[in-house]
Input
Amino acid sequence: MEPTAWPGVFRLGRDLFTVNGAPGHRVYGEELRTERSTEYRKWDPFRSKLAALLVKSPRQLDLAPTARLLYLGGAHGTTASHLADLNPDGRLFVVEKSPTAFPTLLEVARTRDNLLPILADAQLPERYAADVGPVGFVYQDIAQRAQARIFLENSSALLTPGGRGILMLKVRSVSQSTPARRVLNDACRELEAGGLRVLETVDLAPFAREHHAVILRG
Output
């Protein structure tokens, strides 16, 4: 198991791993591997867009940059669990509005004290802002039309000055007919008009078709 350029992420051959924050527990059926008394979880880029970004991006990303992180659209906790692994001493607030997915997210949180699920709509950050407080990192993976606006509203309410974030832009959730490049460009313009700086965009194909990671700084 070799360390990578990303703190807390390891590689074995072509596969990525994180140190399991809940030894013995799987989240989505992933492979567990133990070396020198440390248990690692395989991080599947076909199941996690953040893992796909690490495979494809030339930029070194600090994925544990702060003691407080906000995750919008946690779903069943696949990617959130790996972020929790990367930031064991921090607090990861995970917003998910689906009552179907939320129980699974709760199960993940029961084995990870640093993962804090919130049943709420990410379009309404005023409903959880007081519980979350300022964060240094915002990660969003939501299938909504107004993805850029949702990211901006949460960043405006909660992201500290100079904080960073990643928006996983789902092109076909924005428009079924507009060319993907135009959807991406429009989103970047909206984010920059709202005061954020776009550092890089990464096409996540073939792991996630018509999905782009937008890396941002406040």
About this structure: The first helix runs from residue 49 to 56. The mean pLDDT is 93. Helices lie at 49-56, 78-86, 102-110, 129-132, 147-158, 171-174, 180-193.
